[in-house]
Amino acid sequence: MLDKLGYITAGLGFTSIAASVAAWYAEKSDDEQENAHAERTGIFIGLWPQTFFALSMILFKLKEMGHERDVQRLIKRLEDKVSEISDK
C-alpha cells in the first residue's frame, strides 16, 4: 500500500512538472497580460512537484521502516468513520 502511494505521488510530481511547462506554453500569446498570466500559472503549478516528491520519499521511508500494518489499520479506521457518517 505505501509503495503504491509512493509511486503515485512520484508520478504526480513528474506530471506536475510537465503540466507547469504545458500551462506556460499553452497560455502564451502576443498580449502582455496573457503572458504574465501564463507565467504565474506555470509558476503556481511548478510549486507542486517538491511536495509530491517529499510525500513520495516519506511514504517509501515509512514502508522501509515497517509501518505498513499501521497504515492499513489507519485506513480501516477511516473507512469505518466514513461508513458511520454515510449511515447517518
Protein model, in words:
- The chain is mainly alpha-helical and 88 residues long.
- It has helices at 2-26, 32-46, 48-64, 68-87.
- The longest helix is centred in the first third of the chain and has 25 residues, at 2-26.
- It is elongated.
What fraction of residues sit in β-strands? Answer: under 5%
Largest sheet: none
**What is the 3D shape?**
elongated
Number of strands: 0
Question: Whole-number average pLDDT?
Answer: 86
Number of helical segments with 4 or more residues: 4
User: Over all CA atoms, what is the radius of gyration?
Assistant: 19 Å
Succession of helices and strands:
HHHH
Number of domains: 1
SS-based structural class?
Answer: mainly alpha
Distance between the termini: 29 Å
Identify low-pLDDT runs: none
Helix content: over 70%
